[in-house]
TrEMBL record, chain B:
Record-given protein name: ABC transporter permease subunit
First-listed, main subcellular location of the protein, grouped into a coarse class: membrane
Keyword Transcription attached: no
Tree of life domain: Bacteria
Source species: Agromyces indicus
Cited NCBIfam families: HEQRo_perm_3TM
InterPro entries from the UniProt entry: AA_ABC_transptr_permease_3TM, ArtM/GltK/GlnP/TcyL/YhdX-like, MetI-like, MetI-like_sf
Lineage: Bacteria, Bacillati, Actinomycetota, Actinomycetes, Micrococcales
Transmembrane parts of this sequence: 38-56, 76-102, 163-183, 264-285
SUPFAM superfamilies: MetI-like
Region (Disordered): 1-26
One Pfam family named in its UniProt record: BPD_transp_1
Length: 268, 331
């Protein structure tokens, strides 16, 4: 029923532990079981694209990795640390909200609706967490923010408020904001779904650059082209389970499962 | 005069294409007249002048007395006490209100029910009643004891009237009452902020307290400030109620003066002038705060200059256009 992602190299050779590891993750909202046992493992530097119809649980799974949603059963580890819990003497202890916050610093997240802080300029958005959470000096954070904004092609928009930026520009600032905390892994929750078609390309270019620089990325997306080109692994989810996972060219080009096939025929 | 002639003459009048068409001149039309408005305006003007004149001629107005009392130390001291009471009770109300609002939104049922009960009691009873209650608190609880409940162990004990003099009682009444209102305003403000903002802050590793302080409250302020401005103005006027228990504020001093010299109306006018002046001045910091917290929200940047100019425009514009159109129709 569940499929594990095949590793590029045999497990024995990659002595390094996976960056993100999910084991039999279950999640329900009331009577609705959204995740019915998701198991997957993402290696450092891998780009994994989650695809599937809406309601298949891909966004929920992404939010679980960041502990924005609490899972009901199973286990998620980020860089070897159990998300939301501490294991001691074989017992699980729920983490305090402060400790969860510390854990989240390893994980950057980009939202469908950008969620930039509207009362801060682009630069202020980017330096907020480094200064307030990581306690870096303002000058230091400012310098880093300028570099990150340049990296996403918005160096000249540093002093602009989000409301004066286009959707694509806002999303690129949001990516810079997430990168400012120097995360080990980046989560993208349908980053281009709220954008006008002509603005999608700029955001995807930034993400492609990020993938090339070796960032571990988990991307929930409907951009089949991006998944095929940039993704190391494509995961097709439906009804709260992983239907099919593997090399994007194979999964998206010649799927073995009928459900994948019918989904792709609708979106392509 | 053949049948084809009309169409032939019509052709040059028709559209000649974008390059050949001349820009049409401004529309010349007779503007709609509003005789009803004019009659009403004249009526109001006549009545207003009449009322004003009769007030000025009224011997009971006693303008010299108004002038005499306007800057008397008694009045000025009262103004200072009124300002102090307003500021102190608003600070207490706002800070306490934020605490009560956060309690009200807490997941812990004890905290949220306690906040609800607090709001229910202090918003649901008249301020005057609360003022008198705190003024006579000594009659209800003669002694305040800090010790172990249900035992005779006492660490500390005070006589209530020593601990809570009249001014403190007034401050307690005004501050606690304001807390209840402020709590609801702050709660509405917090709930108006998109939950995505909290998620984004959390995903950056911000703790709940930091998220509230750095992300949610600054955005909630946009919604909180206008009603809080109202609250401050209401508070400034409500301080006049403390005349019942404490005194020394503007209204109490004025009342004290007119009970001695019976110049009731002139002294009330003195108080009215001061209250109007203070409430007018209060709208300036409100405008400043609205501009400060409107940053980043398009179009929501009122400046004092822009407000005044839009106000004068709204008065001046109709008059100017009316005059212009009249000139047009006359020529």
């Amino acid at each position: 029923m569940t499929a594990t992602i095949p590793h590029a190299a045999p497990l024995a050779a990659t002595s390094e532990r996976p960056m993100v590891e999910a084991v039999e993750v279950h999640k329900r909202f009331g009577n609705l079981e959204v995740l019915k046992g998701i198991t997957m493992s993402v290696d450092r530097g891998q780009v994994v694209c989650l695809l599937g119809p809406s309601g298949s649980g891909k966004s929920t799974f992404l939010r679980c990795i960041n502990h924005l949603e609490q899972i009901d059963a199973g286990m998620i580890r980020v860089d070897g640390e159990t998300v939301g819990y501490r294991e001691r003497n074989g017992k699980l202890y729920e983490l305090r909200e402060r400790e969860v916050a510390t854990q989240r610093r390893k994980v950057g997240m980009v939202f469908q609706r950008f969620n930039l802080f509207p009362h801060m300029t682009a630069l202020e958005n980017v330096i907020e967490a480094p200064v307030q959470v990581a306690r870096r000096s303002k000058a230091d954070a400012r310098e880093q923010a300028q570099r990150l904004l340049a990296q996403v092609g918005l160096a000249e928009k540093a002093d602009t408020y989000p409301a004066q930026l286009s959707g694509g520009q806002q999303q690129r600032v949001a990516i810079a904001r997430a990168l400012a905390m120097e995360p080990e892994v980046m989560l993208f929750d349908e980053p281009t779904s709220a954008l006008d078609p002509e603005l999608v390309g700029d955001v995807l270019d930034v993400m492609r650059g990020l993938a090339e620089s070796g960032m571990t990325m988990i991307v929930v997306t409907h951009e089949i082209g991006f998944a095929r080109e940039v993704g190391d692994v494509a995961v097709f989810m439906d009804g709260g389970v992983v239907v099919e996972a593997g090399d994007p060219v194979q999964v998206l080009g010649d799927p073995t499962e009928e459900r994948t096939r019918s989904f792709l025929s609708k979106v392509l | 005069m053949t049948a084809t002639q009309p169409s032939a003459t019509a052709a040059p009048a028709g559209p000649t294409g974008p390059s050949g068409a001349a820009r049409p001149g401004p529309i010349e039309a007779v503007p709609v007249r509003h005789p009803g408005r004019w009659i009403a305006a004249v009526l109001v003007l006549v009545l207003g002048i009449g009322a004003f004149a009769s007030i000025l001629q009224n011997p009971n107005l006693d303008l010299p007395t108004v002038g005499e009392y306007l800057f008397k130390p008694l009045t000025i001291n009262g103004v200072l006490i009124t300002l102090w009471l307003t500021a102190a009770s608003m600070v207490m109300g706002v800070i306490g209100g934020i605490v009560v609002a956060v309690m009200r939104l807490s997941a812990n049922p004890v905290l949220s029910v306690a906040a609800m009960l607090f709001i229910w009691v202090f918003r649901g009873t008249p301020l005057l009643l609360q003022l008198i209650f705190w003024g006579f608190i000594g009659a209800f609880i003669p002694k305040i004891v800090i010790g172990v409940p249900f035992t005779s162990i006492e660490f500390w004990s005070f006589t209530t009237s020593d601990l809570i003099p009249a001014t403190v009682a007034a401050l307690l009444a005004l501050g606690l009452n304001e807390m209840a209102y402020a709590a609801e305003i702050v709660r509405a403000g917090i709930q108006s902020v998109d939950p995505g903002q909290t998620e984004a802050a959390h995903s950056l590793g911000m703790s709940p307290a930091k998220t509230l302080r750095r992300v949610v409250l600054p955005q909630a302020m946009r919604v909180i400030i206008p009603p809080m401005g109202n609250e401050t103005i209401t508070m400034l006027k409500s301080t006049s109620l403390v005349a019942i228990v404490a005194g020394d504020d503007l209204m109490s001093n004025i009342r004290e003066a007119y009970t001695q010299n019976y110049k009731i109306i002139p002294l009330l006018i003195v108080a009215a002038i001061w209250y109007l002046a203070l409430t007018s001045i209060l709208s300036i910091p409100q405008m400043w705060l609205e501009r400060r917290y409107g940053r980043g929200f398009n179009g929501a940047r009122p400046t004092i200059g822009s407000r005044v100019s839009t106000f004068t425009q709204s008065i001046a514009l109709p008059a100017r256009t009316a005059r212009a159109s009249k000139k047009e129709s006359a020529s």
